[in-house]
Please model this.
Amino acid sequence: MVKVIYEGDDFKRMHRTDMLALQRIVDAKKFGIHEIKYKESTIKVEIKKKGDDIVVKRWRAI
Model:
């Protein structure tokens, strides 16, 4: 069974519609960096597979 892990507090503050759009991307197993809507702007998130789990975290350029 695959478990989705959301890292960071950004995902707890997302609107429900934005979270459902992110969940559709995760369910389709589209790994990599994606731009998603976050409240009134857009952010980049990184979706990667770590073992059997899928890790979703906010991507920030260094």
Summary: The mean pLDDT is 93. The CA atoms of residues 32 and 47 lie 5 Å apart. The chain has one helix and four strands. Strands lie at 4-7, 32-38, 41-50, 53-58.
